[in-house]
From TrEMBL:
GO terms for molecular function: transferase activity. Transmembrane segments: none annotated. The keyword Transferase applies. Coiled coil: none annotated. This is CaiB/BaiF CoA transferase family protein. Gene3D superfamilies: Crotonobetainyl-coa:carnitine coa-transferase, domain 1, formyl-coa transferase, domain 3. Pfam families: CoA_transf_3 (PF02515). It comes from Kineococcus gynurae. Signal peptide: none annotated. InterPro entries: CoA-transferase_III_domain, CoA-Trfase_fam_III, CoA-Trfase_III_dom3_sf, CoA-Trfase_III_dom_1_sf. Keywords: Transferase.
Length: 410
């Protein structure tokens, strides 16, 4: 561990990650970003299946390299007694465990909550699953796509006259990973605070963080349920708009697209004046969001006609001068060259083998910022089993002969 590592908020925390895909690995990534030593257990030969998702060259995708940055990879077969024994030894040396297996899987492998607690009474366990560890659907499998539908998100994404759409990323997984990481930090804080005050540490059930993908999505749905409960309102898909708020949408320019949020009552007047529509700015029937929502098509037509006749740079400059929130709709190339992201270290270049030999590749920075710029990304997602020998030696204290014997038997 370097001096820089010891200054990070989670330096000295060790986490064992048992998980594939995105949810648990996202939790592990966030903990690693801020200094935790995250040991990622991967199956022999294939490793985390994310290694092959959106794989354009080589044997490890940039998706894996991104989601698993800052971690150590160790290969263990958790289906074998030998692999489970090593995993339990690692549990004894860790502060937290993060997993996203189907509920009951670890129990069948001899790694239930009680068995983990027996090995390490202070262990915090974060479990991520489709529907949680309890309830009538607990045993049902499900990816983020199912959870996004179950939690109410899919019903609101897309155009009203088309089937529900999805976002371009596995947003349900990422939200669940955020909650799991927060839960781990919260449980560690509670554990350490109680210990420091001389009180008994929390029990094994209190130290379990139970994150359901479906509930993580539901928690992001704002007043979807209260609006239905209080008023009988069922929200529907409205495309690029936000129900009840206008004007707020995406608009095409002569050479690109922008998003404009001109829905504040005072902002609206400035917005309409900026696009040479003082008649709309002064219209007494357009002074509240509810009134503007009823005439959203008229407003979008007026705005779209103005933006379409101008280059994006002119549109944004005009709206910025008028104090109207607006921004470009970026693609990857735009993000990589943007001055704002660069100033805050939110695009960082690291050397990685992308399938054609080592090359500089841009990766997203670390959020949130501590200080003025992003913390540096210390390493990309590791090669499969890259740290097996080091972990067995440094964490478990195995000598070279024992490591060689174990690896040969695999």
């Amino acid at each position: 561990m370097t001096d820089d590592d010891r200054e990070l908020p989670l330096a000295g925390v060790r986490v064992l990650e048992l998980g594939n895909y995105i949810a648990a690995p996202t939790a592990g990534r966030l903990l690693a970003d801020f200094g935790a030593e995250v040991i990622k257990v991967e199956r022999p030969r294939t490793g985390d299946e994310l290694r092959n998702w959106r794989l354009y060259a080589g044997d490890t995708s940039m998706l894996y390299r991104t989601v698993n940055r800052g971690k150590k990879s160790i290969v263990l077969d958790l289906r074998s007694p030998e692999g489970r024994a090593v995993a339990l030894d690692l549990v004894g040396a860790c502060d937290a465990l993060v997993e996203n297996f189907r509920p009951g899987t670890l129990d069948r492998w001899g790694m239930s909550a009680e068995e983990l607690h027996a090995v390490n009474p202070d262990l915090v366990v974060a479990r991520i699953s489709a529907f949680g560890q309890t309830g009538p659907l607990a045993a049902r499998p499900g990816f983020a796509a199912v959870a996004e539908a179950f939690g109410g998100l899919r019903a609101l994404v897309g155009e009203a006259d088309r089937p529900p759409a999805r976002t371009g990323v596995s947003i349900g997984d990422s939200i669940a990973g955020l909650y799991a990481a927060f839960g781990v930090v919260m449980a560690l804080f509670q554990r350490d605070r109680r210990t420091a005050s001389g009180r008994a540490a929390p029990g094994p059930r209190d130290q379990q963080v139970d994150v359901a993908l479906s509930e993580a999505v539901l928690s992001m749905m704002e007043s979807l349920v209260p609006d239905h409960s209080a008023y009988g309102v069922t929200r529907t898909r409205v495309g690029g708009r936000m129900e009840g708020i206008a004007p707020s949408n995406a608009y095409d320019c002569a050479d690109g697209s922008v998003v404009v949020a001109g829905n504040g009552d005072s902002i609206f007047g400035r917005f309409m004046t900026a696009i040479d529509r003082p008649d709309l700015a002064d219209d007494p029937a357009l002074q509240t969001n509810a009134e503007r929502w009823r005439r959203r098509d008229e407003l979008d037509h007026a705005i779209g006609a103005w933006t379409a006749a101008r280059p994006r740079s002119e549109v944004l400059a005009t709206l910025d001068a008028a104090g109207v929130p607006a921004g470009p709709i970026y693609e990857a190339a735009d993000i990589r060259s943007d001055e704002q992201f660069a100033a805050r270290g939110m695009v960082q270049s690291l050397t990685v083998d992308a399938g054609r030999g080592p090359q500089a590749v841009d990766f997203p920075g670390i959020v949130p910022v501590l200080g003025e710029t992003s913390l540096p990304v210390r390493s990309v997602g590791p090669d499969l089993g890259e740290h097996t020998r080091a972990v067995l030696a440094e964490v478990l204290g195995w000598d070279a002969q024992r490591i060689d014997t174990f690896l040969e038997e695999k």
